[in-house]
Design goal:
Blueprint (H helix, E strand, L loop, with lengths): L13 E5 L2 H4 L12 H6 L17 H15 L3 E5 L2 H4 L9 H16 L3 E7 L5 H5 L6 H18 L5 E6 L1 H10 L14 H19 L6 E7 L2 E3 L4 H16 L25 H5 L5 E6 L3 E5 L8 E4 L15 H15 L6 E5 L17 H19 L4 E7 L18 E3 L6 E3 L1 H12 L1
Parallel strand pairs: 1-2, 1-11, 2-3, 3-4, 4-5, 5-7, 6-8, 7-10, 10-11
Antiparallel strand pairs: 8-9, 12-13
Helix pairs in contact: 3-5, 7-9, 8-9, 12-13
Length: 443
Amino acid sequence: MTATPPPRFPAGFRWGVSTSAYQIEGAADADGRGPSIWDTFSHTPGRIADGSTGDVACDHYHRYAGDVDLMADLGVSAYRFSIAWPRVQPDGTGPVNPAGLDFYDRLVDALLARGIDPVATLFHWDLPQALADDGGWFARDTAHRFAGYADAVAARLGDRVRLWITLNEPFVHMTFGYGMGVHAPGEVHLFGAFPTAHHQLLGHGLAVQALRARTTSPVAIANNYSPVWLRGDTDADRAAGAAYDALHNRLFTDPLFGQGYPDAPGVDSTVIHDGDLAVIASPIDVLGVNYYNPTGIRAADADAPLPFELVPLDGHPTTAFDWPVAPDGLHDLLTGLHTRYGTALPPVEITESGCAYDDVPDADGRVHDPERIAYLDGHLRAVRRAMADGVDVRGYFVWSLLDNWEWAEGFTKRFGLVHVDFDTQQRTPKSSYAWFRDLIRAE
């Protein structure tokens, strides 16, 4: 499939796959689970591209054992999953729901029995609806509720989870959920959404402290990054690029390393209390990097509502999302983090990297996805180049193990190494699954 063999990686490099709870679990009403903002959002007409919901998704809640078998056959050394806060605390606070934690207890034990490290993300956007009713991440109290939830989960699983991730892509949750309203909870505040950034980061810092009290396993956060590729060479273009970089890439990273907030659009210091920045800078052991594509930027018109304009990156193949396939962007991102943060940067793991294509079984029921193989091959080569340039990268997780319910796009976008027939729940490993399995075995 590729011109030359993939690069080799050091012994102990972590090979993994990622998923998230609402996108695969289903069982929306099972065993005492409470509603999340995504239940509410997906059941609101007009919100989801195909009118679907995550009520069933991939039915992973009932089929997890078979999915763990797929991971074991794949040969991954780690599985990154998320824990559904409403399954553990139906109202986002108070006593835990034992049946909800029991599911993750069974999952963790099944992974360990197959030699797979459990990597648990505590928040992947499925906020309990009861907390949203009280203000969601606009409410400072949500950060403290999140720390209590982290403590409860770690009390049960802290002896077995091998890596903890507090938040997944807080930039995306802020921007799409509270800024633009295209994700749950569907609110439109534009740059007024900054309090949800600060309170997510405050919750992260408080959760780091709660986890440290319960477990010796390393702790991380998973940020979404997109390197800025300027599409203009004027001072105004460079200023626009810096503004976008501050908003997308630095807003959720500078504070982690004691640098406070950058000069980003919308930053409101009135929501920052004394001591908050020290809590946010609680030391982490790993920085999770989620990468899909770079962003083309140029200066916006003087009367535009934003200080930058997003423009297409011509000359690159695109995915089913119309995202440019640009492995060099991952190299630029990793070396840029290394340059910007220096010795403050902890080891990095690529906690998400993948692509959506319109994968369809052929007449024999097989699913060929050569474009995904080319994507993964190119991005792994970019990681290896960054490592040669001095970046300490310790792992790579493919998004995703399974085709899943893709948020506002419903079932219309497929990211999986494994094809899922959402009517029958039949799993069919794609050719990319076999390619990735062979790559891992060759290491």
